[in-house]
Amino acid sequence: MDLYKANTKNIEKAAEAIKSGKLVAFPTETVYGLGADGLNPIAVAKIFEAKKRPTFNPLILHVANKTQLNEVCFAENRLVEVLISKFWPGPLTIVLPKKSIVPDIITAGHATVAVRMPLHPVALKLIEKSEVPIAAPSANAFSRLSPTKAEHVENQLGDAVDLILDGGKCNVGVESTIVKITDSEIFLLRPGGLPVENIESVINTKLQKAIADTNNPVAPGMLPFHYSPKIPLRLLSRIKIENINPDKTAAIFFRNNNTGTKFSKEIILSKSGLHTEAAANLFSALHELEKENYELIVAEEFEEVGLGRAIMDRLNKATKRFESI
Ligand code: TXA
Ligand code: MG
């Protein structure tokens, strides 16, 4: 595995790697992606191998322009046009009817494909230079924490990835919001980096929550647990502080520690109380803490408005597997 600074020369090198069917981890505004040529099924299969995903879950195709978008899906729909003109490039993924050029391994055999145009100069340059849409899940091992820095990718995937482009820390820090659009309806599949309220104010309707059924591929992000650190993580609101040992516990707070208990280590996500800053720091805080020897990590609950919804979605999923502890 090669780790390169994301300058023009190295982005070109990475594009060559994509073209020759290799795996490249690259920064986006949300999290690092593990990319491959989205039109090459053998290259895409390597993504599942590297992540050790137990099943072939559908992947997002990342595009750099509208020509690429129209190559892979049917996007002629007023709702889609409004959302794209307002929010792309940016942390919004749209699930649309796919065109036949898209390999089945991308869509897990479904008739729809997820597409997004990332708001990151390195990602956009890499897609342009590769001259193909890039398939990329988050560059973490299956069910582990999402990477917001190149070193997170290096630690989790190591030699399973051919090349990592280091573009510094991702500034959104949680994955994209995913919506599915049918003829005239729009469903929320995953809350993420674009607040639901921003979408609703542009389309003038409430987003409906997608019900997972057999016609509606369940996003792994919709599985009950996901994004978990190696050390047990619990929400502060769901435990009794008297039952834990604060000397062996690390705590994550939004603005400040208002519990009256001193923990072995305390991380404040945003002193100034900004959800954007808290989201950007969430996964890196968890990565930092899972490397150390705490018995437990506790996290403060967020109000579910704006990005608070995506933060709580990730925290709820990350804590799920530890709830019996
Ligand atoms: O911010 C992001 O979205 C990041 C960066 C790298 O772009 N990517 C990401 O990919 O989070 P991943 O694979 O970790 O999550 C993609 C989600 C999965 O939960 C998948 O099931 C869902 O998108 N998905 C993909 N195609 C779909 C489809 N056709 N229908 C429904 N859900 C789909
Ligand atoms: Mg993921």
Give an overview in words.
It is a single chain. Strand 10, helix 8 (196-203) and strand 11 form a beta-alpha-beta unit. The longest helix has 16 residues, at 275-290. The radius of gyration is 19 Å and the shape is globular. It has helices spanning 8-19, 41-51, 66-72, 78-87, 104-107, 121-130, 150-157, 196-203, 275-290, 308-320, and strands spanning 2-5, 24-26, 33-37, 60-62, 92-97, 112-116, 134-135, 163-166, 177-181, 186-190, 208-209, 233-235, 249-253, 265-268, 296-299. The chain has two domains: 2-209, DHBP synthase; 233-320, 3-Layer(aba) Sandwich (Rossmann fold). Helix 1 (8-19) crosses helix 6. The protein contains ten helices and 15 strands. The strands form two sheets. The chain has an eleven-stranded mixed sheet with strand order 1-8-2-3-7-4-6-5-9-10-11, with helices on both faces. Strands 12-15-13-14 form a four-stranded parallel sheet, with helices on one face. The protein is α/β, with parallel strands linked by helices. It binds threonylcarbamoyladenylate and magnesium ion. Magnesium ion binds at residues 137-138, 146.
